[in-house]
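Record DUF403 domain-containing protein, 318 aa.
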Amino acid sequence: MLSRTADHLYWMARYIERAENMARVLDVTYNMSLVPNAAESEAALWLPALEISGNVEAYERDYFNETQQEYTAADVIHYLAMDMNNPSSIYSSLRSARENARAVRVAMTSETWENINSLWLEFGQFFGQDLSQSGLSEFCDWVKARSHLFRGVCFGTMLRDDAFSFVRLGTFIERADNTARLLDVKYHLLLPEQEEVGGAVDYYEWSAVLRSVSAFQAYQKIFSDTIEPWRVAELLVLRRDMPRSLHACFDEITSILEQLSSSRAGECKRMAGELHSKLRFGKMRDIFQRGLHEFLSDFISANNKLGVEVHKTFLSIS
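=>
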């Protein structure tokens, strides 16, 4: 497969996954804003949404001025959902996904192209809406549903060749990054004061985090107990049977890299295998002794380096 074609397919999948992940972050933050006493201020509630996406500095540059120095719900929602100048917004992600797909229409099935093209055309219904006033939950549900539909069409219609492998590779590298960022920010934000442990707000905050990665029912089935922060971390890091966990993502990534035939892929396989072994054989007790934040920061950095190596090995035009 041509590197240019692989590059478009890989980034098409990453952008679709990024849009879905952003919708999940917005949805859970909005739901938390409806809980009394969930946060001390509007800024304390919405700043973590920017931190998860790594957009704090860019947001401050674009939205702060001499008279406005606050993180408001309306501005953060617009920035993460519809701001065309934010390359990580849902608008920008879906537009980039569609442009990448259009460049390689012949490398995918007609059903896959029609799905992503109609996704972008239907997205126009949200232009001009003030999502901070009404319709945010419906908007987020629509983005998540169309992302699920895209993956379903890909899985159900694409030949199991290199094109399909690059679509899946982009999906799981992006998903691993988002899960790690979400857990890192939310874990330290939501660690409750002693008197709040087990309270109604504490329970709802952690259940909202689980729902943001579609893990609430999985948690109940596995642990059959009250929601504990360290068990949430275990579920999202080490459980290979949880689809959005770091372990599950790297089960897929290592398998895909083994399938992709390239004499230069040795370093990619080594980097992915190293991360995979830490997740496969690691113990949550050891991770907490070292520090969850340190573990997740190292993971995010290593996952990004793997993405760079994938680009050098498979996707660079030269």
